[in-house]
Amino acid sequence: MGLILSEPVTTKLSACCRSSNYRVGSSCMQGWRNKMEDCHVHILSLPDDPETAFFAVYDGHGGDAISQYAGKHLHEYIVKRSEYKSGDIPKALQEGFLELDKVMLDDTVLRQEHAGTTVIAILIKNNVLYCANAGDSRAVACVNGEAIPLSRDHKPNLKDERDRIEAAGGWVEFNRVNGHLALSRALGDFLFKRDRNKLPHEQIVSAVPEIQSYELTEDWEFLVLACDGIWDVMTNKEVVQFVKSRLSQTKRGSDNAETSIDPEEICEELMQHCLAPNALMGTGCDNMTVILVCLLHNKPYSYFVSRCQQKPCINSQL
């Protein structure tokens, strides 16, 4: 789990951005860990494809070198793929992950890092949402008041993940890869990718993401992307309920007028809610990163808020 501090670092680094289609807030917090290893990006208009948006959380472990490098470059590798240019977005996402992983492996500095990173990434193009996941960070959508999972956590105790690990000569002990790594897919972690006779999807730890795609409709209200520091503490439904409850509240501004709570403030509150009161709790002691993507559908943010308030969170797929 990494070294734990005697007191948590609760300083939150928050950001926001907006367009006619999105209002996005994000925040990250070091918490009880001795350093911050997460990275995240929210890009409303990709430089090489201005009509496309990209959001991602990178949960680093063993250091921040891999998460920082991936956060800076992954979207570039995806968009430059020939598959992307021909319209095969799922294949471009998969190959972009693998190309970046190989570039880092070939880097004389990065390949020496005993570090890796999960990735939960969402790319939205032509009103289709593509979710790419490698590891145990997670994305959840609120659709017509329902919490819908957009990704599957890659844990070593899942049958298909365990089968691959064992076929590659690894083992699962205490629900960890070789007794160490609590997730079974990641960028980096090159210690577990040394078999030159095996393909990327056959390695003990795989960089191959699982891809899901969804057509967006006006029933889609918002997306939450977060590292496992959040999901270890709260379920999909609880997070969606938390966000919706905050959207129904107001705050008093400097001019004494009541306004809606900003998405980045909701992210801050969510992390604080998940933070363990002491280091003995286990859960709630990790780094935390959250991105909240409000889907405006070319409507004002005030309309989005009122619409969310009218649709309470119902039974979800947990």
Task: Tell me about this structure.
With 318 residues, the chain is of the alpha+beta class. It has one domain: Phosphatase 2c, domain 1, CATH 3.60.40. It is built from 8 helices and 16 strands. It has a 6-stranded antiparallel β-sheet. Strands 3, 4, 5, 6, 11 and 12 form a 6-stranded antiparallel β-sheet that branches. Strands 9-10 form a two-stranded antiparallel ribbon. Helix 1 crosses helix 3 and helix 6 packs across helix 7. The radius of gyration is 19 Å and the shape is globular. The two termini are 25 Å apart. The relative contact order is 0.18.
Characteristic key phrases:
single chain, 318 residues, alpha+beta, Phosphatase 2c, domain 1, 6-stranded antiparallel beta sheet, 8 helices, 27% helix
Q: Assess the beta-strand content as a share of residues.
A: 25-35%
Order of neighbouring strands in the sheet with most strands:
1-2-16-13-7-8
Kindly state the number of beta strands. Answer: 16
Query: How confident is the prediction overall: mean pLDDT?
Result: 94
In terms of quaternary structure, what is this?
Answer: single chain
CATH superfamily: PPM-type phosphatase domain
Query: What is the count of DSSP helices, taking H or I runs of 4+ residues?
Result: 8
Note the overall shape.
globular
The CA-CA distance between the termini, in Å, is: 25 Å
Structural class of the helices, strands and pairings? alpha+beta
CATH topology: Phosphatase 2c, domain 1
Q: What's the order of the H and E elements?
A: EEEEHHHEEEEHEEEEEHHEEHEH
Q: How many separate domains? A: 1
Low-pLDDT runs: none
